[in-house]
Protein backbone atom coordinates (compact mmCIF):
# COMPACT_ATOMS: atom_id res chain seq x y z
CA UNK A 1 0.00 0.00 0.00
CA UNK A 2 1.38 3.39 -0.96
CA UNK A 3 1.80 6.45 1.22
CA UNK A 4 -0.85 8.19 -0.88
CA UNK A 5 -3.34 5.47 0.11
CA UNK A 6 -2.46 5.98 3.77
CA UNK A 7 -3.12 9.68 3.23
CA UNK A 8 -6.47 8.75 1.71
CA UNK A 9 -7.49 7.09 4.98
CA UNK A 10 -6.23 10.09 6.97
CA UNK A 11 -8.24 12.51 4.81
CA UNK A 12 -11.39 10.39 5.10
CA UNK A 13 -11.04 10.31 8.87
CA UNK A 14 -10.53 14.09 9.00
CA UNK A 15 -13.60 14.67 6.84
CA UNK A 16 -15.62 12.29 9.01
CA UNK A 17 -14.90 14.48 12.02
CA UNK A 18 -15.97 17.63 10.19
CA UNK A 19 -19.53 18.91 10.58
CA UNK A 20 -19.46 20.76 7.26
CA UNK A 21 -17.67 20.61 3.90
CA UNK A 22 -13.92 21.13 4.31
CA UNK A 23 -11.31 22.71 2.07
CA UNK A 24 -7.96 21.13 1.33
CA UNK A 25 -6.36 23.87 3.44
CA UNK A 26 -8.48 23.09 6.49
CA UNK A 27 -7.87 19.32 6.18
CA UNK A 28 -4.18 20.05 5.73
CA UNK A 29 -4.09 22.03 8.96
CA UNK A 30 -6.03 19.33 10.79
CA UNK A 31 -3.89 16.42 9.57
CA UNK A 32 -0.46 17.96 9.11
CA UNK A 33 -0.33 16.82 5.48
CA UNK A 34 0.76 19.30 2.80
CA UNK A 35 -2.12 21.13 1.08
CA UNK A 36 -1.18 19.95 -2.46
CA UNK A 37 -1.14 16.35 -1.21
CA UNK A 38 -4.53 16.73 0.46
CA UNK A 39 -5.91 18.32 -2.70
CA UNK A 40 -4.63 15.42 -4.84
CA UNK A 41 -6.07 12.86 -2.43
CA UNK A 42 -9.44 14.62 -2.33
CA UNK A 43 -9.63 14.71 -6.12
CA UNK A 44 -8.90 10.98 -6.36
CA UNK A 45 -11.47 10.16 -3.68
CA UNK A 46 -14.05 12.35 -5.42
CA UNK A 47 -13.36 10.70 -8.79
CA UNK A 48 -13.99 7.33 -7.11
CA UNK A 49 -17.32 8.56 -5.73
CA UNK A 50 -16.30 8.56 -2.07
CA UNK A 51 -16.37 12.36 -1.76
CA UNK A 52 -18.38 15.15 -3.26
CA UNK A 53 -17.78 18.88 -3.26
CA UNK A 54 -19.81 21.99 -2.76
CA UNK A 55 -18.91 25.38 -4.23
CA UNK A 56 -19.26 28.72 -2.48
CA UNK A 57 -18.31 30.43 0.75
CA UNK A 58 -19.27 27.40 2.83
CA UNK A 59 -18.03 24.94 0.24
CA UNK A 60 -15.50 22.17 0.32
CA UNK A 61 -15.33 18.40 0.20
CA UNK A 62 -17.51 16.02 2.19
CA UNK A 63 -17.99 12.25 2.48
CA UNK A 64 -20.74 10.73 0.36
CA UNK A 65 -20.97 7.65 2.59
CA UNK A 66 -20.64 6.97 6.30
CA UNK A 67 -17.27 5.58 7.35
CA UNK A 68 -18.98 2.28 8.15
CA UNK A 69 -20.03 2.02 4.50
CA UNK A 70 -16.58 2.66 2.99
CA UNK A 71 -14.45 -0.47 2.62
CA UNK A 72 -10.68 -0.50 2.76
CA UNK A 73 -10.74 -1.93 -0.75
CA UNK A 74 -12.73 1.05 -2.07
CA UNK A 75 -10.08 3.45 -0.76
CA UNK A 76 -7.24 1.36 -2.18
CA UNK A 77 -8.96 1.24 -5.57
CA UNK A 78 -9.53 5.00 -5.46
CA UNK A 79 -5.91 5.73 -4.64
CA UNK A 80 -4.04 2.98 -6.48
CA UNK A 81 -6.46 1.53 -8.99
CA UNK A 82 -6.60 -1.76 -7.10
CA UNK A 83 -4.18 -4.18 -5.58
CA UNK A 84 -2.83 -7.61 -6.36
CA UNK A 85 -0.02 -9.75 -5.00
CA UNK A 86 1.35 -10.62 -8.40
CA UNK A 87 0.89 -9.30 -11.92
CA UNK A 88 -0.83 -12.50 -13.02
CA UNK A 89 -3.45 -12.29 -10.29
CA UNK A 90 -5.27 -9.74 -12.43
CA UNK A 91 -3.94 -10.45 -15.91
CA UNK A 92 -2.53 -13.74 -17.21
CA UNK A 93 -0.89 -11.87 -20.09
CA UNK A 94 1.08 -9.60 -17.72
CA UNK A 95 3.65 -12.25 -16.88
CA UNK A 96 6.07 -13.75 -19.36
CA UNK A 97 6.74 -16.70 -16.99
CA UNK A 98 3.14 -17.91 -17.20
CA UNK A 99 3.96 -21.04 -19.23
CA UNK A 100 6.52 -22.25 -16.63
CA UNK A 101 4.76 -20.99 -13.50
CA UNK A 102 3.25 -23.45 -11.04
CA UNK A 103 1.99 -20.96 -8.48
CA UNK A 104 -0.27 -18.72 -10.55
CA UNK A 105 -3.57 -20.37 -9.63
CA UNK A 106 -2.60 -20.49 -5.96
CA UNK A 107 -1.61 -16.81 -5.95
CA UNK A 108 -4.92 -15.94 -7.63
CA UNK A 109 -6.77 -17.70 -4.79
CA UNK A 110 -4.73 -15.89 -2.14
CA UNK A 111 -5.24 -12.59 -3.93
CA UNK A 112 -9.01 -13.17 -4.02
CA UNK A 113 -9.08 -13.93 -0.29
CA UNK A 114 -7.17 -10.71 0.45
CA UNK A 115 -9.49 -8.65 -1.74
CA UNK A 116 -12.54 -10.13 -0.02
CA UNK A 117 -11.01 -9.34 3.38
CA UNK A 118 -10.28 -5.74 2.33
CA UNK A 119 -13.83 -5.43 1.03
CA UNK A 120 -15.29 -6.74 4.28
CA UNK A 121 -13.43 -4.30 6.55
CA UNK A 122 -14.70 -0.73 6.70
CA UNK A 123 -12.93 2.50 7.52
CA UNK A 124 -15.06 2.50 10.66
CA UNK A 125 -13.59 -0.87 11.66
CA UNK A 126 -10.05 0.50 11.65
CA UNK A 127 -11.08 3.78 13.25
CA UNK A 128 -13.16 2.58 16.18
CA UNK A 129 -10.72 1.25 18.75
CA UNK A 130 -13.37 -0.70 20.65
CA UNK A 131 -14.44 -2.73 17.62
CA UNK A 132 -12.46 -5.82 16.79
CA UNK A 133 -11.99 -6.93 13.24
CA UNK A 134 -13.17 -10.49 12.77
CA UNK A 135 -12.36 -12.17 9.51
CA UNK A 136 -13.41 -15.65 8.62
CA UNK A 137 -11.31 -17.13 5.85
CA UNK A 138 -13.12 -19.83 3.95
CA UNK A 139 -11.31 -22.27 1.74
Q: What's the topology here?
A:
Elements lengths: L2 H15 L6 H8 L3 H13 L3 E4 L5 E4 L8 H9 L23 H17 L2 H5 L12
Helix pairs in contact: 1-3, 1-4, 2-3
Overview of this structure, please?
There is one protein chain. With 139 residues, the chain is mainly alpha-helical. The protein has helices spanning 3-17, 24-31, 35-47, 72-80, 104-120, 123-127, and strands at 51-54, 60-63. Helix 1 packs across helix 3. It is elongated, with a radius of gyration of 18 Å. The two termini are 25 Å apart. The model has no long low-confidence stretch (mean pLDDT 85).
User: What is the N-to-C succession of helices and strands?
Assistant: HHHEEHHH
Distance between the termini: 25 Å
Helix content range:
40-55%
Strand order of the largest sheet: 1-2
Query: Which residues sit in consecutive blocks of at least 5 with pLDDT less than 50?
Result: none
Percent of residues in β-strands = 5-15%
Largest sheet properties? 2 strands, antiparallel
Class by SSE composition: mainly alpha
Q: What's the tally of helices?
A: 6
Mean pLDDT: 85
**What is the subunit arrangement here?**
single chain
Report the radius of gyration as a whole number of Å: 18 Å
Number of DSSP-assigned strands: 2
Shape: elongated
Structure characteristics:
single chain, mainly alpha, 139 residues
